[in-house]
Amino acid sequence: MYFNTGRMGATSAQVLDTQLQPVLEFAPDLVHITCGANDLWAPEADLPQLQRNLDALFSAVHSTGAQISALALADVELDKRMRLMQERIPTFNDMVRELAARYDAVLVDLWEHPLRLRPDLMSADRIHFAMSGQAVLAAEVVRALHARAARQARVSPGPDRRLRR
Question: pLDDT digit string (tens) for 73-90?
């Protein structure tokens, strides 16, 4: 079963206020946390508050036992309206990488991914990935989750594997 609480334009504070509780009540096995980029738009973006909000999200989901997946943004040329945001993306990515490590999340890091070089990567709004970029992103998330599952299967064999030895 799939439950999407995402809302376009939501800040990390709005995600905490309106989306976290329904996610926790749903009790999922996997939660993809992709938020915070909208916080970077504000001329006076509060990066320490963004860090605290993201930490609260990761911590709350991690405490349920759900697997977290997260995303570090690609180094792409953005619309000139987004220059300030673009300067903040490396700091944002460092936050996400640190939280992913702390909470054992599966991380898809697009910063230097070849996807960023595609001329057709961005949609008409020059803010979001076009459908082809979304498809590559989805494939990378599945690939990263598969790699995690394969590692876990090698590290901790289930009872059936022990019986076969």
Answer: 888 766 566 677 788 999
Half-sphere exposure of 150 (CA within 13 A, CB side): 6
Tokens of 28: 């999922």
Total domains, the chain: 1
pLDDT band, very low/low/confident/very high, at 58 (cuts 50, 70, 90)? very high
pLDDT band at residue 2 using 50, 70 and 90 as cut-offs = confident
Range of the domain at 102: 12-118
Q: Residue-wise over 47-75: b if at least 16 C-beta within 10 A, else e? A: eeebbebbeebbebbbeeebbbbbbbbbb
Nearest to 71 by CA among 35, 115, 118, 28: 35
Q: How far is CA 10 from CA 17, 68, 119, in A?
A: 10, 19, 27
In a domain, 34, yes or no: yes
Facing residues of 31 across strands? Answer: 68
